[in-house]
Amino acid sequence: QVQLVESGGGLVQAGGSLRLSCAASGGTFSRYTMAWFRQAPGKEREFVTTIDPSGGYTNYADSVKGRFTISRDTAKNAVYLRMNSLKPEDTAVYFCAANEGWSGILVTQIAYKYWGQGTQVTVSS
Question: Is 12 exposed, middle or buried (0-12, 13-18, 19+ CB in 10 A)?
């Protein structure tokens, strides 16, 4: 059973930056595709970005492309989300997700078996 714990959320002004972290335990981290999703108030959870088990392939939602960067550190069993040029519309609870293996670009919630509890990101205008 894989456990995921997010951290690094907070309140930031528009144009600012944050780095979210997701610590994984209970599984072989190097085997897992990792992803970040987010859910704004009153909206459905949406895909943000994903990274394959090797860290060599990433994919981003159009809304964050060029501003957000996903990375992973196998030695630390962690995945990160660097968020730059934040906008008020980035305000949401951000969730880390994991799925064993690589099955291509998976942008739906149902594709990921393991989830963290989420961390709140609030961007003020």
Answer: middle
- Contact yes or no for 47/70 (Cβ under 8 A): no
Residue 60, beta-bridge partner list? 49
Residue 109 has φ and ψ, to the nearest 5°, of -60, -40
SS3 86: coil
Q: Report the alpha-carbon angle 16-22-28, nearest 5.
A: 150
CA atoms of 112 and 64, how far apart (whole Å): 20
- pLDDT tens-place string over residues 25-78: 998 999 999 999 999 999 999 999 999 999 999 999 999 999 999 999 999 999
DSSP structure class, residue 88:
G
**What is the per-residue DSSP string for 103-120?**
-S---SGGG--EE---EE
The token duo for 85 is: 């040029």
